[in-house]
Structures are given as C-alpha cells and as structure tokens.
Amino acid sequence: MGSVSHISRPVKAAGEGRGDARRERWREHRQARRAEFVEAAVRAIREHGADVGMDEIAATAGVSKPVLYRHFSDKSDLYVAVGEWGAELLMNRLRPALGGQGSPNERIRRIIGVYLGVIEEFPDLYRFVVRRNFTDRPVTQDPVVAEKTVIANSLSRLLGEYMRALGLDSGGVEAWSHGLVGMVQASGDWWLDRQSMSRENLTDYLAQIIWYGIDGVLRSAGIVLDPDEPLELDAVLRVVPDGEDDSPDDPPGLALHR
C-alpha cells in the first residue's frame, strides 16, 4: 500500500485570533473617540464661534490637547473631520428634498430652503468650514469641494432625467448643476453675513432666477411648462403647431400634457 500524504496547514500562533479581536476593538474604540471629539468640536464652534482654538475644543471634550492630538494628526485633520460631519448633516437633509415630488417651483424652493436652513442653523460651523481659518496646512481632501460636487452630481442626475424625458440634449446638465450650486452657495455666504432679507425672500429670489434659466432653455426648444404644476417623467409630450390654440392658457410650441 502506498503511503498516505498529509497536507500541511498553517498553524495559528497561540493567541493570534485573540490579538486580531483586540486590534479590531481598539480600532473601533479609536473611531468612536474620534467621533466624540468631532462632536465636541462642533459644540465648541457653536459656543466660541468660527475662530475657535484647540484649547477650547479640548476643554469642551473634557480632555487635554495632547489627548486630542492622539486622534488627529494636526489641526487640519480635525478641520477635515468637522467638515465631513457638516457635509453629512447637510446631505442627510438634502436627500429627501432632491428626491421628493412636486412642481418644479416646489422642488427648487425645497432644495434651496433646506440648504439655507442648515447654514442659518449652524452659521459658525459654516464659516469654520468654508473659510478654513483653523487649518495649519493645505488640506488634500477639501470637504467643501467634496460637498458641492456631491450636491451638483445629484442635481445633474435629476436634471438629466427631465431633459431626456423631454427629448432634449442633456449634455449641459453637469455644467449647469455646478453653476447653480455655486450660485446658491455664494448667495448664502453673502446672506449669512448681511442678513438684509429673510430666508424666505432669498429662497424666492434664487428660485425665481433658477426657474427663469431652466425656462429659457426649454422655451428655446419650443417647450413651455407651468412651474407650479407637477411634472412627471412619464408625461406625454404633444407638439402643438404654431398658431393652433391647444387651450387658452397654452402658448404655441411644445406643450406638456398628462
């Protein structure tokens, strides 16, 4: 009879599994502590303003600065973490607005209103993140740029769906979306410092200029939409020849019908 060969298997060193578990628990602990310190930084910003220092943040967290620096390599690392916290808060509030139903005017106003509402609720956090006075070195991951890109990409997908549903070229939606996001952000920055009008009035003005821009693009293609009527993606479009009255309220061109 031939000899039976044995397949050698790697043998774990004693305690190796327990060591992996300890490392995982330690990693989770550090992540939890880091999150606690970020929330403490947000509280310190609300209490001391956008020019808050590491001393105030450490005091709010109930630790010394050396302990704080064990979880953040420097001020810029903490700045990025706080910026990511703010961006997540904003996106959590914006997602329902971006995905909600309603007329074009309702959807535009809802998105603008949510954004302005967040920066009004957290003005010093907004200034802290946008103005970057706290950072001690250039940041490679700018949370402001990342946030604007996420919002613009979400808006691009939304506009692109409507443009294609209407049979129009959607090639410009990405550029439009980034431009719209930049306009609202710049207007919000101005408004936060000036407070020369109410949030509702600013929302009205921004919604008006955004709709006029969209309406201009649609009209150039012979499409007329009522901004106060819900627009469904599966709506049926019917061409109304110039000079033929489809209804007393419908101008010549391409009218929307459901």
TrEMBL record:
Q: Which residues does UniProt assign to DNA binding?
A: 53-72
Compositional bias (Basic and acidic residues): 15-26
Q: Output the superkingdom of the source species.
A: Bacteria
Q: Where is the HTH tetR-type domain?
A: 31-90
Write down the Pfam families for this protein, in alphabetical order: TetR_C_32, TetR_N
Q: Which UniProt keywords apply?
A: DNA-binding
Residues of the region (Disordered) are 1-26
Q: Which Gene3D superfamilies match?
A: Tetracycline Repressor, domain 2
InterPro entries referenced in this protein's UniProt entry, alphabetically: Homeodomain-like_sf, HTH-type_TetR-like_transc_reg, HTH_TetR, Tet_transcr_reg_TetR-rel_C_sf, TetR_C_32
Write the protein's name. TetR/AcrR family transcriptional regulator
